[in-house]
Structure prediction request, 188 residues.
Amino acid sequence: MPSSLTDIVLRNLQLIRSRTPSVSEANTWVEEFNRKLGSIDPARLQAAFDAAREEAAGTTRFRPLHFDDIAHAYKRTHSPGDAAPDGPPTDPHCRRRCVDGKVAVLDSKNYAILALCDCGAGAYWSGQPAWGSYPSISDLLSTRRFKEPEEDRVSQAQAEWLRDRTGQVGIKQALAEFTAEMDRRAGR
Prediction:
C-alpha cells in the first residue's frame, strides 16, 4: 500500500481515470482534502477511495468519480484501526453516551425508536448493510416529532438491556418484553 497521501491519490486517480495523473494534480487533491476534512489518515483515505469505487460500481454512473465523491466517502468511512475486529469503535467522548452507536429517541406517543448515534460508533453501523437505512438521531430530532428520553427514566443497566435486546429482536418486541417486566415488578 502506498505510504504517503500523494501516493495514495496518484494510485487511485489512475484507477478511477485509467490515465496517469500528474503529481501536481495529486498534491492539489491532498491540499483540498486537508482543507475540507482536516488531518487525513492515509488508511482511511484509501478506505474512502475503495468505498467510493465500490459504491459507484453498483450504479449506472456515466461519469468518473470526483473529489466530492471521495470526500463524502471519507466522512462515512472510519479508519480501519478504529474499529474492534468484531464491532463498532467505542467513543468514550460521545455526548449521548451511546457506547455502541445506537440510541433511543421518543416519538410523540413516547414510544422508543432506535436511531444511530452521530458519533464514530454510529457511523460504523450506518456503513453496515442491515443498518444503512436507519436514521441518525440528529435526523429524527430535527423533525421535532421526536425527543430524547429523560435521563432517569431507566437505569443504565435497563437501558443497556433494552439496547442489546433491540438489536436482537427489534424495537417492538424488546419494548414489549421490557414493559411486561416493568409491569410485573410494579405488581400491575
Notes: The radius of gyration is 21 Å. Residues 42-57 form the longest helix (16 residues). Residues 77 and 133 are 16 Å apart (CA to CA).
